[in-house]
Amino acid sequence: MARDDWFRNADWNAEIEEAFGKRLRRARDKSQYLRIQASCLAETYPTVALCLLEQYFGLGEHFDIAQAYGDKARALIALKDCDGALASYEAALERERQYPKLKTHAYLDYPCFVAEAKLESMYARALEVLTTNRDRPMFPIDRFRAHGARALLLYHLEGEEEARADARLAMAAAQEAKSGFRYHQGVGLVRSTDDEFATRVAALAG
């Protein structure tokens, strides 16, 4: 690993932890390094990620707290702590409301998690989050996730007819070959539709 990537470890063991700790103790902005490293480990080493985030939050106020809550939610999902993940996503959204200059993908990650995990008691809230943030999706992948989650939620709340239009918009976004941004045409495209989420959305699209 390059010297500049010491806080982006994809693996974790005693040796890596020791090396990370040594660099962290010498770092001026410890909070950012803790959060980024936690983000890299959220799905694969969720317990480690949560420990790093606990240190991060213990350092006080930081500009990227909303993102830290999103990272925490991903770690809790990996540990199958649905209630904790939902609370973390809510905390991320609340932080964005308080400090709107820094936005995250919590507005998409939250509804997609609810739809994928089939947390029916949270469907109405997840749909509310999407509706509140309906103007935010910029890239095809964002539109695919937003419309896809909305379709799955609407299917259970209002029926197949209401859900089908959003499902078709989601699948149309999945087929887009350009981002629409002049200098970044290949950014934010849907790379795969092989997972369960996409399969359920495609079935609704017909």
Topology, pairings included?
Elements: H1 14-26, H2 30-41, H3 46-58, H4 65-78, H5 82-98, H6 106-117, H7 123-132, H8 140-157, H9 160-174, H10 196-205
Helix pairs in contact: 2-3, 2-4, 3-4, 4-5, 5-6, 6-7, 6-8, 7-8, 8-9, 8-10, 9-10
Structural summary, described in words:
With 206 residues, this protein is mainly α. It has 2 domains: 1-104, Alpha Horseshoe (Serine Threonine Protein Phosphatase 5, Tetratricopeptide repeat), CATH 1.25.40; 121-206, no CATH class. It is built from 10 helices and no strands. The protein is globular. The mean pLDDT is 95.
Q: Can you summarize this structure?
A:
It is built from 10 helices and no strands. By secondary structure, it is an all-alpha fold.
Order of helices and strands: HHHHHHHHHH
Q: What percent of the residues sit in helical stretches (DSSP H or I)?
A: 55-70%
Extract low-pLDDT stretches: none
CATH class of the largest domain, named Mainly Alpha
The main pleated sheet reads as: none
Features:
206 residues, mainly alpha, Serine Threonine Protein Phosphatase 5, Tetratricopeptide repeat, 2 domains, 10 helices, 65% helix, 0% strand
